[in-house]
Structure formats: structure tokens, C-alpha cells
Design brief:
Length: 251
Amino acid sequence: MSPSKKNSILAAMAGITNGEFAAHFYNTHQVGKVSIGGYPIGKEMIEAAILATKRGRKEFILQEGEEAFSIVRELNCIESPSDTILNLRINSKIDVERFAKQLSSEITFKPIIEINLHCQQQEFLSAGGGQSLIKRPTLLREMINVIQAYDYPISLKIRGNHVDPESFSKIVNRSNIDYLHVDSYEIGAQGTDLNLLNQFEYHCQTSVIGNNSVIDFTSAENVLKTGVEYFSVARAARSNRNIFNTIIKKP
């Protein structure tokens, strides 16, 4: 499979991928799907985001209880918000329920909700969010159930080298989610761990998004050759606002 608009995704970057940033790529018809976020949902996640900014990190800071309303304003920047992935930092079933209910009261379309199991920032880990959720499978299952009850498609974003592909894929398959977004960073090396992506594709019954070090046609093609359905781009989009056109046009 060759890189195309249909299988391309802008990945979330905290403090960067807001509605305006994502709209630049989507509204100019460069990319098939865009992500916005990661957005902190609930008191503890918002406090973690504030703490992270104090040491110089870029983060989105939302008002507790108003998160869904703020995100709707970002969604309205994008021509087809149903092609948008909302990357959320969450750590509470109650907060997920409140957010999903508020979001449903404001919109009729169904963006994809991506639960962030990827974040390694200590402020979020200490509050029980990000990658620490992988060690709380019961809570994760409960949050997935809530989101599914409101009929939102679901993505989980993970660091692939921090889980066993076969074991984690069993959790994904039982949960009946729509996408697994895998950051396939190769420890101790540059580039993408293509073998790791291949393992997730083999064991997973859902659509897999391959992420990490996609910067051009060749790197995107190599990701897709593992069998995953999509590739996503993060940092390269910050420095090249024409990145997806560059990738899709074979040299």
C-alpha cells in the first residue's frame, strides 16, 4: 500500500495541535484525518498540565467542567470534524462520563476519541493518567465502556515498546475499539521499529495506526508495508506545513 491522503493522519502533540493547526492540514486537503490535543480532562489532569507548563512544557490548559465546550470550538475550525481524533488525557470514569455527556449535548457528529496511554510526563503519571493507565485495566475498560455508550469511535494511543504486542492486542480485541495508535519508537536506535508494528498488525483485529519518524514518502511507505492501515505524522508537521503533500507525492 502506498502513502495516500486516505491513509494519512496528523498525530496529536500537546500544546500544539489545536483546531487552527489541524485545520491547516485538513482544510487544504493534505490529509485524511487530523488529531487535536492532548487535552487534559478533569481536575487532576488539568492540574498536571499546569505543573508541566511550569517546567517549560507546552500544554493545553482547559477550565474544569468546561473542557467539552472548549474542544467544540476547536472542532469547529475543521471542515469535517468527524475526521478528527480527540486525544484526551483522562484518569477517571466520572470525568469521562461528564465529558462525553457534555460533548454529545453540543455536537451531532462523532469525532474519534483517543485515550492517551502514551504520555510519560511525570505529572500525569503521578495522577494516574497517561501510560500508567495500562496498569489499571479495569479502569481503562470502564472508560472505554462509557465512551462506547455514547457511540463515539475509540482509539488507544500507546508506546508499543512498553507493552507485549500479543498480550495488549488481546485487551484491544476484547474491548472492540476502532483504532490502535502505536508509537513504534525503536529503543537505542533512530527510526521506526517496523517489526514491532508488524507484530501489532498480526495480533490486532482493529485498524492499526503506525507512528514515529515518518518524515517522507519512503518512511511512510515502510510503515504501511508492515500491514498497518494508517501512518501518522507528528513532529515533522511542525517544521514543514506541506509535509503530507511531500509524503504522498512519490519522488
